[in-house]
Design a protein that fits this description.
It is built from 7 helices and 2 strands, in the order H-H-E-E-H-H-H-H-H. Strands 1-2 form a two-stranded antiparallel sheet. By secondary structure, it is mostly helical. It folds into 2 domains: 2-88, no CATH class; 91-145, no CATH class. Helix 2 (10-18) packs across helix 5. The radius of gyration is 26 Å and the shape is elongated. This is UBN2 domain-containing protein. It comes from Cephalotus follicularis.
């Protein structure tokens, strides 16, 4: 989604990332306050249009289930944050998932009667899950030992 928004107009992505534009002005006390709609200028309209285009792109890209989840959001930024939370979870959930992935990696070993091809595919699957988890950096305290089963033990060299 991020790449698509950037490809349409990079400002769409900035609206999602930074939040929607709020037209502001200085009041008599030199404080920033919201501008009434009748005081909005062309720049305000342009920025609000970018915000609404980003929201529209996101909403039409979602399936019915995800749309129902975010339909009450009023900005693309809100939609994005809710989707991230829904699909990736809180920091505590992310850390728990990462710990499980690390544990799986550390306990990885060849199973009895497993072919090299199957071992390689399992290793690639494990790597892929870690790579695409987006939950931080792996800390490999004990890299897996690629120890072959005892029946594969080599014989001493022939003399």
């Amino acid at each position: 989604m991020e790449i698509y928004l950037k490809s349409r107009d990079f400002r769409n992505w900035l609206s999602v990332k930074n939040g929607p534009h709020t037209p502001l002005k200085l009041n008599d006390k030199n404080e920033l306050v919201s501008k009434p709609e009748d005081e909005w200028d062309e720049d305000d309209f342009r920025k609000l249009t970018i915000d609404n285009k980003a929201l529209n792109i996101m909403l039409v890209s979602l399936d019915k289930t995800e749309y129902n989840l975010v339909r009450r959001c009023t900005s693309a930024h809100e939609v994005w944050k809710l989707l991230i939370l829904t699909h990736e979870g809180t920091e505590q959930v992310k850390n728990a998932k990462l710990a499980l992935l690390n544990r799986d990696y550390e306990l990885f070993k060849m199973q009895p009667n497993e072919s090299i091809k199957n071992l390689y595919n399992r290793l690639l699957g494990s790597y892929s899950r870690r790579k695409h988890s987006r939950h931080g950096t792996l800390v490999m305290t004990n890299p897996p030992m690629m120890k072959s089963p005892s029946k594969w033990q080599t014989y001493a060299s022939w003399h």
